[in-house]
Amino acid sequence: MGFEVMTEKRISRWYFGGLASCAAACCTHPLDLIKVHLQTQQEVKMRMMGMALRVVRSDGVLALYSGLSASMCRQLTYSMTRFAIYETVRDMVAERNHGPMPFYQKVLLASFGGLIGGFIGTPADMVNVRMQNDVKLPPELRRNYAHALDGVLRVWREEGIRKLFSGASMASSRGALVSVGQLSCYDQAKQLVLGTGVLTDNIATHFIASLIAGGCATILCQPMDVVKTRLMNSKGEYRGVMHCLTDTATLGPQAFYKGLVPAGIRLIPHTVLTFIFLEQLRLYFGIRVITST
């Protein structure tokens, strides 16, 4: 007669992804701001350190955190949605199948979650880009949104609700690509690392898996990110996504990877911090599940 062994594991609550992303965004916001500045300059005039120094010199250190409220708002809409969809469905399927999902299913689920999250997060994302870019504009051209909500309401009143969702197709597509790079690649990398038997479910495993996921996400979404930033920041010079794509293409293929290093320097630490925070939330505050084996 065999004995049943009771094992306890913890699974994430649906909103943990949003909280972890917010915490990570607080740490990486200055890098995001510099990335936006680099992508919105027409010719490559400045590199990353030069741009950071220019912002600090002209407007002080706190200018590196301009648009932080919009960044938080974006994480609470976009990231919370994609993590909630991905983790809830993944855990349900894993429980039903008594094992992890195949990788292709993780990719499909992550892209679906990212697509929905990207669309929901578009207004906050657009205000985020505008607030960050404000620092660079001469005083008379600045939009001077007080905070994210003020930005969203002013765009709605002054430019109409359609403007709030301008670039939604790009944001959704980018959301899908980032989510595939981050969520499904993180899960798969973690599964492979744990499968070696060398490391247990600890912070070292989380760090290695999230580093791989951050790299995948950066390479996957950089071309999309450049076009999205140019569209959101435009003052009507582009007729649509295709016009923006062809216009960017005239600058050569490297234009789509403009700011790749700053994007990686922002997205990789952001991914690493997000998953480390997420795993700590799961371990200490997650839902306890008792399984018998």
- Averaged pLDDT: 88
Q: Tally the helices: what do you get?
A: 11
Using DSSP, what is the number of strands?
A: 2
Helical amount: over 70%
Morphology call: elongated
Specify the structural class. mainly alpha
Strand content is under 5%
Strand order across the biggest sheet? 1-2
N-to-C span: 14 Å
What is the radius of gyration computed over CA atoms, rounded to a whole number of angstroms?
A: 20 Å
Low-confidence sequence ranges:
none
Question: How would you classify the quaternary structure?
Answer: single chain
* Order of secondary-structure elements: EHHHHHHHHHHHE
Largest sheet: 2 strands, antiparallel
Short characterization:
With 293 residues, the protein is mainly alpha-helical.
If you had to describe this structure to a student in words, what would you say it looks like?
It is elongated, with a radius of gyration of 20 Å. The protein is 71% helix and 4% strand. It has 293 residues and is mainly alpha-helical. The protein has eleven helices and two strands, in the order βαααααααααααβ. Helix 1 (16-40) packs antiparallel against helix 11 (260-285).
